[in-house]
Prior knowledge:
Blueprint: H1 4-20, H2 25-31, H3 36-47, H4 52-61, H5 76-90
Helix pairs in contact: 1-3, 1-4
Amino acid sequence: MESPKILKRHAALLDEMAQTLGIDLEEAAIRGDLRIDDISEAVLRCTGCPDPRHCRHWLQDHTEGATATPDYCSNAALFQQLRQTSEIKKD
């Protein structure tokens, strides 16, 4: 199991990536589009990233937002699904 410090670091990266993509994880959970277990699993996937510093730099380069994650993001499919679900519900 990962240390609390590592889990917190990756939880913050996950949340920041979501915000960069225009996704509100809390709102998605409230709407029922995302379970708390899904968030936990996403954080654990994030801890498997071989270079979280690269992710941090990518996020700093995309402070104005982005439409997709970097190619190496282990949560790319989850974020894409959440964006699509959010767009469908807006229509």
